[in-house]
Amino acid sequence: MKYGVFSDVHGNYEALKAVLAFYRRKGVKDFICCGDIVGYGPQPLECVEALSGIKELVAVMGNHDAALAGKLGVKWFNPDAAWAIEFTRGRLTGQAMDYVAGLPEIVETDDFTLVHGSPCKPLTEYLLSENQYTANAKKWTVSPCFLGHTHMPLYFREGPSGAPETDFMKPLARISAASGRVMINPGSVGQPRDGDSRAACGIYDSESRSFELHRVSYDIEATQKLMTRLNMPAELANRLSFGF
Ligand SMILES: [Fe+2]
Ligand SMILES: [Fe+2]
């Protein structure tokens, strides 16, 4: 089965539309979303409605989704992020809010494990180091483990010597999950932070057990213009141009 794997949409509907159109062109019909559907962006309702309408989608809750649902405080959010949670609260209807509030924190299927931050701390850990990969090892079983939260396309796995190794994934990078235990972060659809402003996403083939990273161009200006019209913090709009 081919899965479209993506994360951190963050209310950027222009980016999400481009990624879903890319998956359509590739014939991908099953999806994995690593959380943070809302927060930061101008169209959280459109994003939630688009994703909640996809039957073949498995999704988990991110920290921004949890904050919206009142399951996590915004104490550690920066002021723009906290502002965006209040903005989002004003835009989501009951049904969309129920969908976000009902997202699980961790999912395990026969094909993969899915979590937003890390298996140890599903909502809050930014998994960026080999030490964190090792510290989480006993908390998950089915490989690959897909995660998000850092907005960085990264993988972690056991190297040939048994020591953990990690690297960033460039477009078209292919990571095998055929042996060993692999964690894969597909990067962010709606607010990339690796210096590439295009939406990041991936395709996982569960038969060949390989993951491929892709970058998809979208109409960044359309998102920014809408954010300006909605009087959203300028920094949230500006950073989209740079992928930071
Ligand atoms: Fe995020
Ligand atoms: Fe997050």
Give a quick set of tags describing it:
globular, alpha/beta, single chain, binds fe (ii) ion, 6-stranded mixed β-sheet, 244 residues, 8 helices, Purple Acid Phosphatase, chain A, domain 2
SSE diagram, text form:
Blueprint: E1 2-6, H1 13-25, E2 30-33, H2 44-52, E3 57-59, H3 63-68, H4 79-89, H5 94-101, E4 106-108, E5 113-115, H6 130-135, E6 145-146, E7 153-158, E8 164-168, E9 174-176, E10 182-186, E11 199-205, E12 210-216, H7 220-229, H8 234-242
Bound molecules: fe (ii) ion (2 copies).
Strand content: 15-25%
Q: Specify the structural class.
A: alpha/beta
Largest sheet: 6 strands, mixed
Specify the CATH homologous superfamily: Metallo-dependent phosphatases
Strand order of the largest sheet: 3-2-1-11-12-9
Mean pLDDT, nearest integer?
97
Total DSSP helices: 8
According to CATH, the fold-level topology is Purple Acid Phosphatase, chain A, domain 2
Report the bound ligands by name, code or SMILES.
fe (ii) ion
Describe this structure in words.
By secondary structure, the chain is of the alpha/beta class. The chain has one domain (8-234): 4-Layer Sandwich (Purple Acid Phosphatase, chain A, domain 2). It has helices spanning 13-25, 44-52, 63-68, 79-89, 94-101, 130-135, 220-229, 234-242; strands at 2-6, 30-33, 57-59, 106-108, 113-115, 145-146, 153-158, 164-168, 174-176, 182-186, 199-205, 210-216. The strands form two sheets. The chain has a six-stranded mixed sheet. Helix 7 runs antiparallel to helix 8 (234-242). The longest helix is centred in the first third of the chain and has 13 residues, at 13-25. It starts with a strand and ends with a helix. The mean pLDDT is 97. It binds fe (ii) ion (2 copies). Residues 36, 62-64, 116, 149 line the site of one fe (ii) ion (FE2).
